[in-house]
Structure formats: C-alpha cells, structure tokens
What does this fold into?
Amino acid sequence: MRSLPGLLQRAEAAPYSLSREELAWLLRLGPGKDREAFHAAACRVRDRVSGPNVYLRGLLEIGSVCRKNCYYCGLRSGNPQAERYRLSGETIIESALQVFRMRIGSVVLQSGEIDSPEHTAFIENIVHRIREETSPDFAIVLSLGEQSEESYARWRAAGATRYLLRVETSSSALYAKLHPEDHLWRTRVDCLRALRRQGYQVGTGVMIGLPGQSLEDLADDILFFREVDADMIGMGPFLPHLETPMKTAPASEEERLCLAVNMVAAVRLYLHTCNVAATTALQALAEDGRERALCAGANVLMPNFTDIGHRRAYRLYPGKPVVDEISGETPLQRLCASIEALGMKVAWNVPGTPPHFRA
Ligand code: 5AD
Ligand code: SF4
It folds into this structure.
C-alpha cells in the first residue's frame, strides 16, 4: 500500500512531516516487523533530541476531592464510594522536599478540581514554600484542573513552572459524550491557551481506546498537540471503572495497550522535541507497560510519592498499581535498574526541560 521505510525516513528527518492519514495508518500497526521499525524510528528521534535519558517527576496526589463529574473517572463527584481526602500543607511541602532530596528533578502536585479563593491561596503558599526551600531549577509542576487565568498567574508568580491539563480528546463531539453538559471542551482549550500566556511549560494529553474514538480521532489528537504548542504529552489507555457510567471498553486490554504504545511512538515521530511520558495507566494493563512506552520513544516517568494510604484512595481508574511503586531508596533503585536494562539512564538532579520549550 505504501512504503514504510520511506515514510519513517521522512518522519525522522523533520517534525510535522506526516499527514493525518499516515498517522492513523501507523497507529493501526499490530505486533510484527513493521511495528518494530516504527517504534525504533521513534526511539532514534528521542535519542537525537534528548539522549537516552529518562527524566523523573515525583508525583504527589494531594487530594481526591473533585467538583467535576467526568463520566469515566473514579473520583467524579457523583461517585459516593470514592474516598475523599486533602493533604495538609505541611505534608505536601515535606513530601515535595523529600522528592527534591532524592535528586528527582521535578515534583508534580495533582488533585481533583477545586475552585475557591481559599484553594488558590493554599496552593500559592505551598508553591512559594517549596520554591524557597529548593534550588531554582527544581521544577514545580501543577495538575489541578481548570482554573481562572488569575489563579494560574498567581501560582506561576509563586514559582510553579509547568502545568499538566489533559484535553482528554481533541474531538469536541467525543468530549461531549464523555462529560456532563456543563463540562466544556472549549473551556479546557481556553485554559491551555491561558497557561501558555502565563509562561508555563504546558503538558496535555488524551485517553486512548475510548468508546466511539476512531484512529482518525487519535491522529487528530496528535495534530492538536502541535496546534496548542504543547511541551509535554501524557497519554494512557482508557481503563473502565465500575463505579462510573463508563463500565466497559470497546477493545481488549491488549489492543488498548498496543494502541497506547503506538500513540507514544507516533507522537514522538510527529512532534520530535516534546517530552512524552510513559504513564502509570500503561502499567495498569501490563507490568512492563511503561517500559514498552520507553521502547517506543517516551522519555519521562512519574513515580508515585504519595503515601500508600492516600495512594490507594486516589483511584481514577481500576488496576492502578499501589504498592509496587516508589516511596523509598530501594524501589527507586529497582526502577533505575529496569531503565538501565533498556539501555537508557536516569537523569538525576536536572529539570529535563523539553527542547521544544527551550526553542
Ligand atoms: N481511565 C484512564 N484514565 C483516566 N483518567 C481519569 N479516569 C480514567 C480512566 N477511567 C485520567 C484522565 C485525567 C487523568 C488525571 O486521569 O485523563 O486527565
Ligand atoms: Fe475530576 Fe479529573 Fe476525575 Fe474529571 S478526570 S472527575 S476533573 S479528577
């Protein structure tokens, strides 16, 4: 039908050189030689732009309270079975400093969406304190949902440098099927633009294998990442949660994993200089899910530093690994060993700012 070597060669040579149809065609590749060549090309691009480095971000799930009611998420406000908690400021600051002391280049503060003046001030104060007690190039990353541009500005001024806000899907029609009426795709995109205006490094991403999602939709997602000028991409397979309205997935676990890893490779081949995460949701489907993404062009891992009790309560989706994760020196060493076994190496004490942002 078409020449894969020619297509990969063109994609490797320069970013943005694949069409929507070509991206969709690559996404369809199943296990075999062609798929291996596709992933190898993505890894060569990754190695060229950021070396064989894996950048770590220490994840802190700082609260499971959420005002939103997304149909797929275990933390939706309409789920009475979800366990709700909010960590204290002191706990958050102490945990962030622990991440810093472990020579991890950045910390991510993530929670459900809360919008109140008190919350804005609470986060502002925490960011300020972490900024004061860490080195200037330690990256403070926020993932706290849709907020006013003023809140984004205050947190930025306090010292946050990055923000993660997944668009979930670039199709506004599909977005409308996954959310209640008052959750607007437009607002989400406006937030991404506001973050850009405020000088954040912006991370976004989508879920893969959603009901009603086509390969062309996923190709459009990749084009969208370029359009919003994203610096970092975090994507994972859709994992149906029984305590939500979306209890089933349209494809098998193996198919969703295969597609999600293909998305990592396609994003790398199209965008070249962005950071791409090997997400925990991949690990929920296969023990080596994140490693498979690293072998397809990803260069970021987000080990979880939330204490085990709260980690268990922060259940966005089922099957989220709880115990087999980082929270001390030894598990971290184990993770490093698995990274080194892939021929990559952990980049300690560096923020790992993507070349895309530096440009
Ligand atoms: N499956 C996979 N990912 C999910 N998320 C929420 N619920 C699910 C689910 N059921 C993801 C969303 C959100 C991120 C914090 O978690 O993409 O942006
Ligand atoms: Fe809240 Fe995020 Fe879950 Fe939506 S996906 S319900 S905003 S935690």
